[in-house]
Amino acid sequence: MVSLFVGQSTATAQDAPIVDIVTPDATIADEFSRLRGFRELSDGRVVVTDWIEQRVAVVDFSDGEVRQLGSVGGGPREYRLPRQLVRLPRDSTLLVDVGNSRLLVIDPSLTFTRSISLTEHGERFEMNPRVSDSLGRVYFTPSPFAFGLPPRDSVPVARWGASSPLKMFETVLIGAYTPRTRQTSAQMGIPTVMFAGQDDWTVTPDGWIVVVRSSPYRVDWYGPDGEEARGAPVPYDVLEVTRADRREAVREFLLSSYQAGRGDGPQPIARSSISEREIDRLTESEEFADRFPPFRPGKVFSRPDGTVWVQRFLRSSAPPIFDVFRRLQGKVAVVRLPAAREVIGVGSRHVYATIEGEIGLLSLERYQIPASIAE
Q1: SS3 202
Q2: Which residues lie below 8 Å from residue 58, measured CB to CB, with a gap of 6+?
Q3: Which fold has domain 3-17+43-180+189-339?
Q4: Residue ranges of the domains in the chain?
Q5: Which pLDDT tens digit goes with each residue over 326-363?
Q6: What DSSP letter does each residue of 122-162 carry, written as one string?
Q7: How far apart are CA 197 and CA 216, in angstroms?
Q8: pTM of the model
Q9: Which of 122, 48, 42, 116 lies closest to 85, judged by CA?
Q10: Do the beta carbons of residue 27 and residue 364 sit within 8 Å?
């Protein structure tokens, strides 16, 4: 095993250039409710999943067309609660079909061609695919319960491919959620301490596993041949969590949850069904950390050029800000987008974000990445 220490000193990391991306070059207006999955195709179209509407759609920015793929159900070209979309080689895509506990393969012609059980390796070993490498091998972190561990403990990254055996990277451990400790009411609650720091990860096209650590904030790189490159600590401003922050976090948690359905399988929770009273109850009864963590879990993106974009955890009113890291160089840039946007994907040449309109629907925006950081 080769171990390296990469990155910059604190002073140099603070001096990384700030790049503002201000104006979208294309917009799809008022078409979506809540986007959770994203995949950029080689011809510039994107595939997205709408959690609330329960649909998978392909979006063509050249003419504004939005076309639905498949439909809701349990059949071979159907899905329930579609979530992540994972890039596979030659414009194929892997869809996480939560409601049917399976993975669906979408071929380059955007046809559903194959179904794979989420429990491919046993009933307690559920796959939760996050990303793939250029060879099409899919990476995920198994549930801590598959190892008999409480959620606070670390779990390894696992790699799986249709033609390759399951591999567990025991040296690449991810710090998972911190579970709540105090007892609340008998009602259903939030199982973790919100705003508690946790690690996140992604994979570069050439197979390097990139782990973003929360304490201290740094980026570690693990190579396919056993190499390790540990990043330098990255300074950040610490923000205190307010009651308004807690209420917003509870609202986001509820919007990402689902409830048991009657005959038609599980159903997402609609925005209109979430009461302010329920938000207030959970805000007062659940556990929250006192300070914001350095970055947002689930908002770590790997670009084809090998850079990794990490979204800082700021208040919802603040513009989205990303720290951009490159192996052997550390933090190389800070990217700032307009306020009120939620970034859902970072592609080969564009950043994709949503903005909520007056009637509550989301518009999908595409922003071109400046040449200075495009490669």
Answers
A1: strand
A2: 41, 45, 46, 47, 66, 67, 69, 110
A3: Neuraminidase (2.120.10)
A4: 3-17+43-180+189-339
A5: 999 999 999 999 999 999 999 999 999 999 998 889 99
A6: -TT----EEEE-TT--EEE---GGGGT--TTSEEEEEEEET
A7: 10
A8: 0.92
A9: 48
A10: yes
